[in-house]
Amino acid sequence: MAGKYLVHTFGCQMNAHDSDRMSEVLEARGWLVAEDAEQADLIVLNTCSVREKAEQKLRSEIGKLAPLKKRHPELVLAVAGCVAQQEGEALLGRVPHLDLVIGPDNLAELPDLVREQQAGSPPRARTVFDLSSPRFLPASPRPGRAPVSAWVTTMKGCDERCSFCIVPYTRGPERYRPHEDILRDIARFVASGAREITLLGQTVDSYRDPALPPPAALDPDESQFPELLRIIARQVPELARLRYTSPHPRHLTPSLVRAHAELPVLARHVHMPVQSGSDRVLRRMIRRYTRAEYVRRVESLREACPDLTLTTDIIVGFPGETREDFEATLDLVREVGFVGLFGFKYSPRPYTPALKLGDDVPEAEKSERLARLFEVSEAITQAHLGRLVGTTQRVLVEGASKDAARAQGRTARNEIVHVLVPPGHDATGALLDVEITQAFKHSLAGEPAPGQLAAMPARAQQPAPARRTRRSLPLAP
Predict the structure, then answer these.
(1) Domain-by-domain residue ranges, the chain?
(2) pLDDT given at position 453
(3) N or C: which end of the chain has fewer CB within 10 A?
(4) pLDDT tens digits along 200-213
(5) How far apart are the C-alpha atoms of 201 and 181, rounded to whole Å?
(6) Which residue stretches of 175-290 are H helix?
(7) CATH number, domain 272-387
(8) Tell me, what's the pLDDT at 54?
(9) Which CATH class, in words, describes the domain spanning 4-126?
């Protein structure tokens, strides 16, 4: 018994990817997307527990659905994702109007679990890791309807055990997807109209596959991720751009640096989480690198790709972080020159080693530090964007901008550009040379260089309505 569904996504790109796969498995069984909650027979809240704020949003949203469930008792209400894995049966006990709790490794079972609920089964939690036989849902894009920029997962879980992070508990240990399956997903997306692929993994650059040649170097930080990038570049030459997120600095090895220097398809941007600029705090975080090691590795990447941009993640107010530690973080932001960052106040997460350290930085101090961090970061960002005014940049147009007269896309260095498009034209999917005319706080504006609109590919004339939008939050390695 199918019906209409809605999926509401919280959190990072991995959650958005999982929401896409849930949509596909439901639609393969005859489900249709509902226009609003009142029409839905199934509502799935796909949750994140990496940050406390995401859990707070879930509690708010699930509370709002109680009156709807009372009016429509046949509605199946499900919670998926990391909070589902974290809480399991306990969530059913706390939320009486909840029908189904489903973990990230059980998404393929969603249609059958929902059907059981529709047949009158009692509420159920299904949160079992697929450790012995990892299962990855393949992408099923519709021909001509793929998003311009699509995500393809390479792995599940994380083995890093950073002291602040709940991901190893909610996503399990690292399990890697066979490279042939990754290639098939990428080829399907490209054949269906995608121009850019972002490879996803909690520590994406730790990727391994026994079917690939072993790393040439004996360095334990070496992985087979650079070889995966090379295989993708060789076997899917139609791909316009390739990105990945989120890497761990330990695996930014010479072989990965060489891949960036030698593969034109790789975007000239890397999001490389650092979390802190203080060696003392990095040790307490169990990050397994020093500040000097981080700087040396990103400098080698910049030497190989001089036009490459870097962004990062930073936590302020970690247990024991002193003012001197925080100043070291600001110094690192200035030294590296990150053109953007995601900053967060530390919040205790269940089952993490950092709970033993306490939470000794006052909330007001965390807020002050976060504001200062953003102040420094935004000054760097604005200076960087200002230098691009008057230049010509290659922009992959992803879709419409909020301004009806413009389209929105990104450069290879990940700068957001709002492109002026003449009436009657749709540049979605086009790679355009754009003359930058203006810099805003976090983006650029420009006009297509002469002759660019006439060269738009056929794909651009039939834009695909996106099933999801790009999420702003990174993964959390």
Answers:
(1) 4-126, 133-267, 272-387, 392-461
(2) 73
(3) N
(4) 999 999 999 999 99
(5) 15
(6) 179-191, 225-235, 254-262, 279-285
(7) 3.30.750.200
(8) 64
(9) alpha beta
Residue 420 phi, psi (nearest 5) = -70, 125
pLDDT at 80 over 60: yes
Count the residues in the chain. 477
Overall average pLDDT of the 217-222 stretch: 87
Q: Which of 421, 443, 447, 422 is nearest to 434 (CA)?
A: 447
Architecture of domain 392-461: Beta Barrel (2.40)
Assess whether the region 133-267 and the region 272-387 belong to the same CATH fold.
yes
Between 216 and 40, name the one with better pLDDT: 40
CA–CA distance, 317 with 456 (Å, rounded to integer): 48
Asked whether the predicted pLDDT for residue 67 surpasses 80, the reply is yes
The reported pTM is 0.91
Give residue 13's pLDDT.
82
Distance CA 233, CA 263 (A): 7
Q: What is residue 412's three-state secondary structure?
A: coil
Q: How many Å apart are CA 281 and CA 286, to the nearest integer?
A: 9
- Distance between CA atoms of 138 and 466, rounded to whole angstroms? 18
Average pLDDT in the chain: 92
* CATH architecture of the domain covering 133-267: 2-Layer Sandwich (3.30)
